[in-house]
Design brief:
This protein is mainly alpha-helical and 268 residues long. Helix content is 77%, strand content 1%. The chain is globular.
Length: 268
């Protein structure tokens, strides 16, 4: 198949990513990474770099989504900026630092870690697990440590951090709508630091395909981002008309299936 025909898959991926992001309030990494990995393998990109490229491209695609989400939550006064300021240094350090770890881990172990984390996210969705508020926000050192952990895992699985930061903030007695809005704001430094990290670590990597900056494949980035921006509002509007609770469970099953497909492609 010609390369130009493969490019048609990226706008279709953008439709799915944008729709579910708007409908369920989830980041696109869980969908983008396994699908991009499979697409990159099908295009005969270097096997030892496909997961790294999928992570880097997904993280870069999240930047625009994070900006849009941040503005929307800020407009509704749902962002705790005091929390953002306290956790942001750790977020930036953890996210950027973890990209150096990811760049030095082989493709298969990295894919297994991603699949295991997405299985955790899927179980959360299926069972509706929510932590009970049991403590207050920690001090500066504790917030920095939490930021390093949230940012580090987010960089390794190319997510905006919501599946970690929302439970953490809820556990620390932050009101749910503030936890969600603040998590959206935290997603921007995660996406920015992760994008820079994957760009730096992939710069000059041997064998990367044309139109690649670091571990970021530009055609996928541009086409997925451009389309997802249009379909996210559609998903958000339908969120009030469709049975979202059931759809979250379906989405959890899709995540598991995509991760299984990715692992099968790598091991086959």
């Amino acid at each position: 198949m010609e390369l130009d025909l493969w490019w048609l898959a990226y706008p279709l991926l953008g439709v799915v990513v944008g729709f579910f992001a708007g409908l369920l309030g989830v980041g696109g990494g869980g969908i983008m990474v396994p699908i991009l990995t499979s697409l990159f393998l099908a295009q005969d990109f270097p096997r030892d770099q496909v997961v790294h490229m999928a992570l880097g491209t997904s993280m870069a695609a999240i930047v625009l989504t994070a900006v849009s989400s941040l503005r929307a939550h800020h407009a509704h006064a749902a962002v705790r900026w005091d929390v953002v300021r306290a956790i942001a240094p750790g977020i930036l350090f953890g996210t950027f630092g973890a990209t150096f770890i990811a760049a030095r881990v082989d493709t298969v172990p990295l894919a297994i870690f991603f699949a295991a984390f997405m299985a955790y996210v899927a179980v959360q969705m299926l069972l509706g697990i929510k932590p009970r508020p049991s403590r207050n926000l920690p001090g500066a050192l504790g917030m920095s440590a939490a930021g390093v952990g949230i940012g580090g895992v987010s960089a390794l699985v190319a997510i905006g951090g919501g599946s970690l930061s929302v439970p953490f903030l809820t556990w620390c007695n932050v009101k749910v709508h503030h936890a969600i809005g603040t998590s959206a704001a935290i997603g921007l430094p995660i996406a920015f630091a992760g994008t820079v990290g994957y760009l730096v670590n992939g710069w000059g990597a041997p064998g990367t395909p044309a139109l690649t900056l670091g571990f970021i494949y530009l055609p996928a980035l541009v086409l997925v981002s451009a389309v997802s921006m249009f379909f996210a509002p559609l998903g958000a509007r339908l969120a009030h008309r469709l049975p979202v609770a059931m759809l979250r469970k379906v989405f959890a099953g899709v995540l598991v299936a995509l991760c299984a497909k990715m692992l099968h492609s790598l091991f086959a």
